[in-house]
Please model this.
Amino acid sequence: MKIAITATGRDLQAPVDPRFGRCRYLVIVDTEGGGSEVVENPALASPGGAGVALVQELVRRGVRTVITGDVGPNAFQALRAAGVAVHTGASGTVAEALAQYRRGGLRAPDGATVPAHRGQGFPGRGGRGTGRGQL
Amino acid sequence: MIIAVASGKGGTGKTTIATALALAAERPVLFLDCDVEEPNAFLYLKPELTVRRPVYRPVPEVDEEACTSCGRCVDACAYHALLALGKTVVVLKHMCHGCGACAIACPTGALRETSHETGYVEAGRAGAITFAHGELGIGEAMAPPVIRAVKEMYPDWEGTCIIDAPPGTACPVLEAVRGSDFCLLVSEPTPFGLHDLRRMVEVARALNLACGVIINRCDLGDDRVERYCREEGLPVLLRIPYLPEVARWGAEAISFVARLESWKTQMAALLSRVEEMLGGDRGHQR
Model:
């Protein structure tokens, strides 16, 4: 089974990217074959709907489970529609997050864990919030 | 002549000014409340609403028999509202902007645009004022289709039209002010008022709209809005001091021009001045 972890860098020692739709990279681990690959987030710069576009990328690559920090409502709806399992609350490196997941230490939320567009702000400034501004 | 009242920042007094202009006008005017997320001008104008109709926006529907899940519609969608899964395509309706690109991109004709109810418009009269507003449905995210419907209520109107625009500088504001002859920018002398005024001026300039500024609560804050207007060559058409009773009347949904005759005169004069700046009544252009 292919498991994707959102990451800020390109390998298993990179920190987990807590944002789903706006993550920098996906590290995809094949639990049967044992290999891993790195994919740049194709939706990173998209003005809206990044989470949905990233779910499409997961589907295209046959990923069945994704590990991340938080997930917004649009991405959550898309993940559910696609039948991709999501586990949130991951921290540390990609390898540590994978270990957390295997120990059963991550949540499988039944809804979004953050509001829409939370990951879209400037780094370290707490995101764009849920104001009335729309695209 | 279409005058759009906008501000960037919320709470500067757009609706207070827009309704005051309508109430002070010496000729019949059309008033369009385009803040469809919080339509509240009716509280001041108290129109008798005699027309109500739903607003629809186009959303694609997938014929699962015809769909091959090729993903061309997904690639065509600028808003990421579609997801190709195994055998079919899923539409995330609330993310769809109704542009129709997906149906054009579909090679098998599996996508058909259907109507999704997204809000309503209402219209009626308040004395000499012809009035329309709209409201976005609960859970709906796209204001522009409802704003367009408000603006299309009286397509043949030829006199003065006053548009109360929503706050912000994104799509709903562009939809509201687009096609106007003049943009009346209501600001306040605070860092927030100035910051958002700058953004709104950029929007108005991008749309080639003539602008003028009203500084509300002009005796509070600092002079940076004044300085900015001077530097940018923006005419300050009116300065309104802070009047605590305006807020009190506002709480009772009474316009300050209904209480202060001198301000009614100033508002009527402002309308005339904008008309002069535009070189007479240019009629209704959209």
